[in-house]
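#structure-requests
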Amino acid sequence: MRRTTTVAVAVLSVWLTAAAAQAAPARAFVRVGASTAGDSLFISFVERGLDAGQNYAYSGSGTLRETFRCFRSASFTPTHRTKTVAGSASPDPRAYTANANGVVRGFIYLDSTIAWPDFCGPRQETVPVHVCYWPEDLVDIVQPFDVYYFPDGTRICGAIEPD
């Protein structure tokens, strides 16, 4: 009788542990979106399966290509001269606290690190007018790491309104 009770408790314990492991959701990015914001890339996300109240930090990476145009200084009218320059994006890391349901809703930016080219003539200004980003990943940098990889070839482009 004692052996049967011990075996039954052991089986029940294993079953409850397995059920608890299945019930706990895995960490995962469930929604990721991106759009341009000026010459930056705005990446919004939702990550679930986190520890409630825990702090999490996020970063990302990618490359970009930015187009510049010459504008006349006196009238601020565009000329036909343009130049496109490629470079890597600089992340603007952010930290968030998971809510009571273990969810973080947040955003990060990827910023242009490109030095503005000096190709305009006298009495002209160099102005960024268009940008395309190729984001690579979004990373939850708190262990254990969680990474969202953008599909290969993802390109997000947008106009930059001159000031």
